[in-house]
Design brief:
With 103 residues, this protein is an alpha+beta fold. The chain has helices spanning 2-7, 73-83, and strands spanning 18-26, 51-58, 63-68, 89-91. It has a four-stranded mixed β-sheet.
């Protein structure tokens, strides 16, 4: 139920204060598959065989999570703009997709 709540589009409230954001790749490793079932060119961060989940957590508050098609800024930044109130502090790791959120 918590995951359904975090991923639902029903909640129109904005996250505020200090918000932490991050993405993760969900799916098994190719090296654990039989050689005939492996997908070529999927080493590292590949969305060919893995689903990308993007999440935002308000410190001491709500969590929102989304499935995104890529980890590029064009897919991530619209979710941040839509769900984080203006003037909030956004904490992220050094991933380049977040660089457009500076300032």
């Amino acid at each position: 139920q918590r995951i359904r709540h975090a991923t639902s589009d029903d909640d129109l409230s904005m996250l505020g204060g200090t918000v932490e954001i991050d993405e993760t790749y969900i799916g098994g490793k190719e090296k654990n598959k039989h050689a005939s079932k492996r997908t070529k060119g999927t080493q590292g961060r590949s969305s060919k065989i893995k689903a990308i989940a993007f999440g935002m957590k308000e410190r001491g508050g709500e969590i929102k999570a989304f499935h995104v098609d890529s980890a590029r800024a064009a897919a991530i930044v619209p979710h941040v703009i839509k769900n984080v109130s203006l003037g909030s502090r956004v904490n992220a790791d050094e991933f380049r997709g977040y660089s457009s959120l500076d300032g």
